[in-house]
Protein 1
Amino acid sequence: MRSHLSIPFILTLSTLSAQAPLWMQVATSGPAPRYQTRLAYDSQRGRTVLFGGSGSGFLNDTWEWDGATWTQMSTTGPTPRLFHGLAYDSQRGRTVLFGGFDAGSGHRGDTWEWDGVTWTNVASGGPAARRYHAMSYDSQRGRTVIYGGFQTGPGLFGDTWEWDGTTWTNVSNSGPVARRHSVMVYDSQRAVTVLFGGTSGSGNHHGDTWEWDGSTWTQASNSGPSARFYHAMAYDSQRGQTVLFGGSSGPYLSDTWEWNGTSWTDVTAGNEPTRREHGMAYDSQRGRTVVFGGLAPPITRLDDTWEWAGGATSTAAAYGTGCGNPALTLTPDSSARPIIGTTAQATLANIPNLVAFVSLGWSDTMVGAFALPFSLAQYGMPGCDLLQSAEYFALPVTPLGPGTASYGLALPNSSGMIGIDLFLQAWAPDPGTNLGGVIVSNGVAWRLGNV
């Protein structure tokens, strides 16, 4: 059962967070302003690689970001282009580029690889020439995966291709409906390629999530972020989360979402830089998702670099000791941690007379002018301590069976609550045990997070 706290409590909860902004602007110099550029993270060299895009014309420059500085590496290699695909092959130490659109030849079907020094044209066959396709690298199977895209004439593609470093193979012609502007990343913990969104044109935008296991596409979700295109995604391998940011559904978007393989969570921090058609990659060495450039409304090319520090992990831990014979205990539920948008839970045990309740406070160090823990011996309860400030008292619990009950707190899905600490303690009438006729439990400390 969810507890129903007062509106003042929820408003207080939503405004208490002292969490630092999760998006941080880290550079305003480096590559020239551009949109439809692509980023990939070279994990062997610890560099985020950027190629091409559109600025004052189509571009073919290569830049690398080391977490502090952008360095221009090359102005030769693939022809100037945008709407291409870029992914890092970690087994072979190569950044792979496929396709896109250039001013001279139009749609491209060439494959290039960057080794950190030189671009090499490694194939001119394989998938049909295209732009707007999704591309990522499956590190378990050693395959660069392409899905969909567009070419004038044939129109939209709904095919899946894989590159093993030597040969392109058409591995599927079924799965998501044919589309362009979808985005893919590889979830290395679950060994699936994750695809979200895109458009089939004429306002037919998609908000579905699909996963590719190397042989079959499976629709994993049809809820979460709003339907969109021109967005970007990266896979946070440290936390096992696919991060989605921005894009367009007509208006420009500035929301941030995370996918854990089961559900999407809105982790928008409120300071996101509104944009679409930006480049994005995950720096696994520093634990940062990197965003560069894109378009801001109305049509402003950007040259700024932002980093996402990741979500905040929720925690739940017991502390202190309870009183009674046996002692009343309160245990956090490991499967229902205090994650925003869910119900956090704790379990009571050793309830002597089937009646119990919970108090909740903002502090485990002070109650008014008094330090915690505060002995309740003067109130006829020797051996019992107040362990939290108890601003909210007599919160109901749900009986589970003889001597047991659960307490649940529904947490609004508001990123402003990330980082808040809450402290709980259970109480139960027990006449005859002490003069006060009440026993109390140990405490439980909750830190609110989005994962």
Protein 2
Amino acid sequence: MRAAHPPGEQQQTPGAYRFASMNIKLVFVIVLCNMLSYRGSKVLISLFAIELGAAQISIGTLIAMYAVFPLLLALYAGKLTDRLGVRMPMLCGSAGVATGLLLPFLFPAIPALYASAAMIGASHVFYNVAVQNLVGILSSGVEGRTRNFSNYGLIMASASLIGPLVAGFSIDHFGHATSYLYIAGVPLVGVLILAFSPGLSRLHAEKSVEEKPVADARNLLANAPLRRTLITGGIVLTGTDLFQFYMPIYGHSIGLSASAIGVVIGCFAAAAFVVRLVMPAMVRRWGEDAVFIWSLFLGAATYLMFPLFESAVLLAAVAFVLGLGVGCGQPLSMMLIYGRAPPGRSGEALGLRLTINNFMHIAVPLVFGTIGSAFGVGPVFIANSLLLAGGGVLIRSPVKA
């Protein structure tokens, strides 16, 4: 008889324990390489499109292409990961990202940029679901999962800072097309690691005892704690995205220079990095749910403060506090979703998370853009504050039997 484990808690396979200490650092190297190239490509595609004479609406469409295929494929990618394991989706996804990055170098024209964005987005989703699942599989218990997902968040934050810098300096020194060639080599580091790590093929999430086939995600959504975490995770992403979109607009409207706006946004990123360093200690003391809830309420309170200030120094301080709040939301939502997923369906649950997130990537700018056009930027911050507070209320509500 197998030892029972708590409902929703993923139990590691014996292979996971053997590979955990050796492979988690290699996994983080793969994460760094893939996210660095992914974030860098978003800077490259915008600037290369401008260089090629694209209109603003075309640039917006190019960026949207990154999210279209993940929206359609994320749930399937999760199911595929649960069925095949993590190695092949990560290997093929990383290779697909590298191939997509090569297209603008080989064919430096607008159509190649569209094809590149679509291929990068479609490939990245298979890698992304699998690697998040792998981080959970290689984690031992709640404490190990907290530590690994926190470190995963730190690597993601670091790559999100380094990738655009690398792309910008490369463009200045080597040009747009050649920069695509260089950045295409970065994910190949992950491809090589995966190609020579056959042991990863044996790593799967723990299977359900019943092994019943599941046609769709409806019974995942019927799990109230999981459903609430999925929804609230999307709300946290909205809080992060809207800051990136609207802080430059608000800063410009009150007369801040571009460098001052950059410093304000940089303070947000720095705070997100800092809070992920101490997140494991906070989770040990107060628990995952409590930290997640208070991060939402802190973010909600902070958003109300933005329209009150026009000083760059004060706005940077407010942005830092906001980063402390919503900065731990994404890794916390990932670890909660992994822990609350039914045995054998953690990849599918993480894929469903990405489906919701990519829907937010497309829908949120349209909805809040309408609010901003009609009422100005200030009400956008207030509306997002209410959204984050609503997420905190939702996830702390007691589950009815």
Protein 3
Amino acid sequence: MRVVVVGNGPAASSAVEAFRKVDKESEIIVLSEEKYPTYAPNCLENVIRGDISKEALFYKGGMEFYERHKVDFRPGKEVVRVETKRKVVITKDGEEIRYDRCLLAAGASSFVPPIPGRELEGITTAKTLDDALKIRERVTSGKVRRAVVVGGGPIGVEDAEALRRLGVEVSVVEIMDRVLPRMLDGEMGRVYGDAFSKETGVKILTEHEVVTFHGNGHVEAVEVRRKGTDRSEFLKADMVILSTGVRPRTHLVEGTDIKVHRDEKTGRPVGGILVDEFQRTSNPDVFAAGDIASGIDVWGNHRWIALFPAAQQSGYVAGFNMAGKRVKSNGLVDYNAVKTSSVTAGSGGVFEGAEEEIKVEKGNYLVKVFLKEGTVIGYQFVGIPKGRKLNPKNKILRSFGLEGWERKVLADRGFGLEASGVLFHFFLKLRRTLKGVTRRAVEDLVLRSLANPSLDVPLYL
């Protein structure tokens, strides 16, 4: 059997691992538009700062990953179309590659809004490793003193902090009334935004839209306007990073029998390629996973979730099923944390439509848990821990060596990823209810104990 994988991100690499656990001999071809082996797409702000090792960036082991799993890896091969009737994928240079089973894991591409002047030099996205490397090269060359980030989502604020740490004056322009609008509700988003701006010195303009980019060949200023007014403000800029969202690469299946996620009433696309709980598309020999797909969430609904954990999860499910297993996904969930060292934030699940919310304020933390019909459907947290020491009795810290972790954790002044991971695992993956003891654990910030009762020792004293 020949398996062709279109894409080379977290979903693709996870699918390869799962497939090889079952099938050791079938041919696997991985086609990648980029020239690099699988890398961590959620660490590109680290690339901009220059504080990530090759081992961490190429987290699957670089080229050795393909050798170990007997994969025919073909970098620089962009796929432009899939033809399901002939069972071939067609590359940009015209090559046709036959498949018996195909995994579409080509991810999503950056959305570039049709703003006048967007073609000027110095305006870029920050979606790929090449993007991040070019941004770092330009900043470290001393050519960038002022930058504007368009879009206040997770990538936008992470990139803004990265640039600030490199000495760049940064402004973030967000059209909504808060940063992280899809991660946090109004109250939490404003708390995070105020703290982030104060801690980093990043200027945040919410409820503003970009009107035009100005410059003579190279961007020099960004014209912005507060929503509902006709008065413009001009932000000087040597660089602009567009962080205005992504779109799934569903053009690969145009004209085929593979269905795309559409609004039932309007027919408008609202997500990626439709897959079932086995990551199968409407064509029996084609699977899809990661940012290109709309999968089944924990509540049984189709949702497009363009996040790293969902990509890994869906990739593993697809890999097992392509190899002949019958593995059902236990449901995808939004699960995200902002990796900013100045102030932490995280969320999981949904908060729209919640019938009840429980808010816990303690010290420098604000935690919300959202419920519907008595069941937890989501959570959010924001926090800036100060003046707290790590607990040497915590088994997790001891197992990794306290000294190194103390320096690292305290330097980050937070536990964003850990807290988000624990809350996600406990409430949404394990479907646990919010009982009295659970609420006390949240109130005391003993979140690690929710994930594993045997480790019921606080992370912080």
Protein 4
Amino acid sequence: MSTNIALLGGGTAGHVMPNIALLPYLKERFDRVIYVGSETGMEREICNKQNIPYYSTKTIKFYRRKIWKNAALPFRLTVGISEAARILKKEDVDVVFSKGGYAAMPTVFAAHVLGIPIVCHESDKTMGLANKITARLSERVYTAFSGTFRRATVLPTPVRREVFEGVPFHPFSDNEKPTLLFMGGSLGAEAINDALSECYPTLSHKYNILHITGKHGMPLRSPSYLSVPFADNIADYFASADLIVSRAGASTLGELTALGKRVVAIPLPKGESRGDQEENAAYYLERGAISVLPQSCLNGDRLTAAIDSSMRNRPPAPAYDRDTPKRLAAELYDVAKMKHLNRQRNGEIGE
């Protein structure tokens, strides 16, 4: 009897990359691994590169400010649930694993209706709305932080093993200078780019600068500066950097603290998000793992000061158990096998 799993999570790389971290270990245990996501999200492209069978459904997004946009939610959700149910039946899925995001919700509801066990993992200090709902339907709940959900097991966010295998590269004319990496998450960060533009003349005297710009590029040309819109080989950029300036997404901070990197985090402020990045950053700041510069204080001078201050300190010790993805994959397999045993007891399938 084959054992199959469906992975869910989309919208940002933070919802997708932890699933990718599980793949090598899931493939050791499950006969088939599929991904169910949105029709247009980045998860489709990522899965295609990983050769994971990908299915899409109609998805929903709840608008907190533009309430009138929520009028179509019941229709889209109903269609999405129907599409997801057909996929789960066709693939004979035994367990669904959700990393959150609205793209996961139709499949979560479909799995619940079909009696397929659901497992979810929350990377942020507090749960997003999608995972708050999913957790209440889940057989097992995992969180990266203690206190996030009352009946959760604490387990770090899975980190891809290739993150630890980055190869440093040195594209600059003066490779004696320390290297900074600026990145704004999978969608880029205009505020970080603007602050860098302001302080670039000062920084470039002391540092080489790698810059993952996102959609908002910068017209800089210098022997001390290299920019790319996106980086598929992010591990090489991590390995090349002495300090990283980034947003405070849970997956990003999980990867950087796992590597023991100096970090100046600029959390996406509440109002532009639900405040999760500020909470993530506060947690790591309390433990001395990162420095934090609030966006409300962000300008060229303060960014330079934060970088210089962090560079005077030793890098923090790496903080991560590399067996985390393997352990989570094993627990997901246990849930799937329990489903088989229950079906056998109920006479639905043979011994």
